[in-house]
Amino acid sequence: MFRKNKYLILAFGFWLLAISLSAFSQVSSLAPTLIGSTGGFGTATINSTTATISYSVGEPMVTTVTSPSVTLTQGFQQPTPTALFSVTVTATPSATICMGKSTTLNANSSSLALPLTYTWSPTTGLNNPNISNPIASPSITTTYTVNVKDAILNAGTATITITVNTPSVIISSTVTSAVCPGSSITLSTINSGVTSYTWAPTGQTTSSITVAPTTSTTYSVTVKNSTGCTATARDSITVTPTPTITVSGNTTICRGSSTTLSANSTATIYNWNPGNLTTAIISAQPTSSTNYTVTGTLNGCMGITTVSVTVNPAPTVSISGSVSICLGNHATLASSSGVNYSWSTVPVQTTQSISDNPSTTTTYSVTVANSFGCTATATHTVNVSSITPQITGGNTTICSGNTTTLTASGGTSYTWITSPSQTTASITVAPTTTTSYSVFVTNSIGCSGMATATVNVNSSLLSSISANSTTLCPGTNTSITISASGGTTYSWSTGQTTTSIIVSPLFPFGPHTYSVAISNGSCTADTSITITVLTPPNISISTTPSTPTICSGDAITLTGGGGTFYFWGAAYGSPPSIVVYPTVTSTYTVIGQNVNSNSCYNFASVNVTVNSITAIVGNNITICPGFTAQLSATAGGDTTGLSYNWYNSSDSLIHSSNNPYFSVNPNVTTFYLVSATNGLSCNSANDTVWVFVDANNNCAIHIYNGITPNGDGKNDTWYIDGIQSFPDNVVDIFNRWGEKVWEGAHYDNDKGSDHVIWKGHNQSGQPLPAGTYYYVIDINGKRFASGWVELTR
User: Fold this and answer.
1) Are 270 and 245 in contact (CB under 8 A)?
2) What number of CA atoms fall less than 13 Å from residue 692's CA on the CB side?
3) What's the rounded Cα separation, in Å, for the pair 386 and 535?
4) Mean pLDDT of 267-282
5) pLDDT tens, residue by residue, 635-664
6) At 742, is the secondary structure helix, strand, or coil?
């Protein structure tokens, strides 16, 4: 009976157990309570491997939990419980880490049904995705999810985000290629959120550093942000070695000599100073001791060395002694002092002084060496005089009563053996009988000799010569008739043989002598007459203005000078001054006479230069409203000191410059005029160009991709054609690092100080370096256009 009841109690107990487990499945963290048939109670103990139920009264009941069901040892089977439980995740020491660091993930569960299983996802950066506390080392911020299951297959999940805090850093360098040793380089960091910097190998702690490496060096910077995380960037600077230069060649020379200097180096480019020579080998000829510096360049790096060339003085050589000697005498010469001497005599003489007997004029040279071994040469000419006196001129046969002139030559002084003695080169004699005349002739150096001439006297001859005038003015076609008489034959100095000749001497001014030899068959007499060519007046032309250069259409006054009467030609008559209006360069001539002197005529000419200039503006231009038209003028003629003057349709001057380019942006169709003025203040005629404003000409904003602010008047500012039609605009300019360098609101293309246009400068007005810049144009608060613009200097 007890056993039967025992089984009934056991069955009742299992029923209570099922009810209790069912209750346990609804409350995840409560231990189930068992109520026995005898009024006892039981407790459920959960460990990591089994779930055991111990009953405190009677025989124990044991169940073994095996997935997916609960199997009772007595053979009864109950459904698998589905208890609920909570899961939490923490990170130790923190859920925020630096790049390269790690933290421990801790999964905690309220389930008592052990053992527990863990599944983490994603698995990236985890050392073990199947334990409760894996070590996480993600490279980027990552959210991890853990799924926990207990022994009775209850499950729970939890997530945690591991934030990877990593500062970013980039090194920007002022060089893009190899540098020379000692060159200054600035290394700058491009980063955000950084609080400290540490550079290696310099140890500096600023955001940018300036270095001057002598060898190729890698520089690194480690930055730290506010969370203590660090990042490192590196930049390698290649240093090109400086070429080593040695110089070979003779460094000691004599003054006046040259030496060859050779630069020995691996350099490819050379520059020598002084001399500014660019070859490796140079020829130097300094006049005094000089330091030569050669700079060698290899791959942009320069090496330098200096060599001293010593210039020893050459001796100062001179020769003193005989300058002129008579034939047969000796010449004595002496050199200035030296160490060694070499004369040009045959044979060569080597003493400081020499004696020689030249037969003709001879040039002697001596080469003298000094103690430095330097030499110099001097020359000296010895003139050898071999006087040969003679008597020439005149008739050696004359008629009684006539004279003849004897002329001695061959010297500088003369002494005639006459009574009294005469000392002129020429003498006139009138012997009545045949007579011999002798003269002693002495030259400039005292050499002398004698010559003799005989004058034969024959019977008498009466001769005469006359002229219808003995003066004339040149240039007036005046001729003079000269007549001779008293003989039967005549021989004129002109070569004519008539009794009369006609002569018209013009130049030179002054006397002109005509002679004639008159013969009667036995005697001949020489006679002559002098005709004087008068000096004409010195006629000149002065101009008002004083410089005979005028502009086309201007007048110039021409005034004659030097005479008392003037004739300018049939067109102008004979006033002393005339006013002319030449349109081309012209020559004007005046004939003048001075009746207060000798009444001769002369003439003068002046060249009047006419300066003209033209200006042409070119073809008409059609633009869209708000666009800019580039006007260009071309000048011709004398363009020295040229300037261009631009006028609007109201004939008002709006621009004046020596630049032929002018930009306009009219709102309506307009015409413009241009004239040119040169340095002589000559003006050209106006030329006109129309600028048509056509709103139907496919008009839109046009953006140019380049600007060249070099002051030549072309592209000095960045025009955005048509932007004036959209005044609510903002234009931003950025550099290649994304930094805004200029901003302008209400961009209007006007270059005035109170208008907005980009001129290649930053916001402070300083010039920006050449390069590529990024622009952004907003119109009415919306992005209209963006792109690149090239700044070229």
Assistant:
1) no
2) 8
3) 44
4) 93
5) 888 888 889 999 998 889 999 888 888 888
6) strand
Q: What pLDDT, on a 0 to 100 scale, did the predictor assign at position 310? A: 94
pLDDT attached to residue 52? 41
First to last CA, the chain: 118
Convert the pLDDT of each residue in 320-357 to its tens digit: 998 888 888 899 999 999 999 999 999 999 999 999 99
Provide the CB-side half-sphere exposure for 482 (13 A, CA): 26
Beta bridge partners of 190: 170
pTM higher than 0.70: no
Burial class for 413, CB neighbours closer than 10 Å (0-12, 13-18, 19+): middle
What is the chain's length? 793
Strand residues in 73-136 grouped as ranges (E): 77-78, 87-92, 96-98, 103-109, 117-121, 135-136
Convert 382-404 into a string of H (helix), E (strand) and C (coil).
Answer: EEEECCCCEEECCCCEEECCCCE
| Residue position matching structure tokens 């107990």 | 13
Q: How far is CA 555 from the centre of its chain?
A: 46
Residue 422 is classified by DSSP as: B
pLDDT value at position 3? 38
Q: Over 470-538, what HEC string results?
A: CEECCCCCCCEEEEEECCCEEEECCCCCCCEEEECCCCCCEEEEEEEEEECCCCEEEEEEEEEECCCCC
Q: Which two tokens stand for residue 248?
A: 């070979």
Contact by Cβ (8 Å): 526, 493:
no
Q: Rounded mean pLDDT of 111-139?
A: 92
If you average pLDDT over residues 469-484, what whole number do you get?
Answer: 83
What mean pLDDT do residues 110-117 have?
A: 85
Q: Dig out the tokens for 212 from the structure.
A: 């001057």
Handedness of CA 745, 747, 748, 752 (dihedral sign): positive
Query: Is it the case that residue 581 has pLDDT exceeding 50?
Result: yes
Secondary structure of residue 111 in the 3-state scheme: coil
Cα 672–678–679 angle (5° rounding)?
145
Token pair recorded at residue 638 = 């004398």
What is the spatial distance between Cα 529 and Cα 483, in angstroms, rounded to a whole number? Answer: 10
| Mean pLDDT for the chain overall | 83
Q: pLDDT at position 72, please?
A: 34
Greatest Cα-to-Cα distance within the chain, rounded to the nearest angstrom = 222
**Rg, the chain, Cα only:** 62
Joined tokens for residue 174? 């002022």
Q: What is the reported pLDDT for 459?
A: 66
CA distances from 496 to 300, 501, 516, 602 (A): 88, 7, 9, 31
Annotate 608-632 with DSSP letters as a single string.
Answer: EEEE-EEEE--S-EEE-TT--EEEE
Residue 570 has phi, psi (to 5 degrees) of: -60, -30
Q: How far is CA 536 from CA 265, 358, 564, 766, in A?
A: 77, 54, 13, 74
Question: Which amino acid is residue 670, in one-letter code?
Answer: T
- Cβ atoms of 584 and 553 within 8 Å: the answer is no
In this structure, how many other beta carbons lie within 10 angstroms of the beta carbon of residue 755? 12
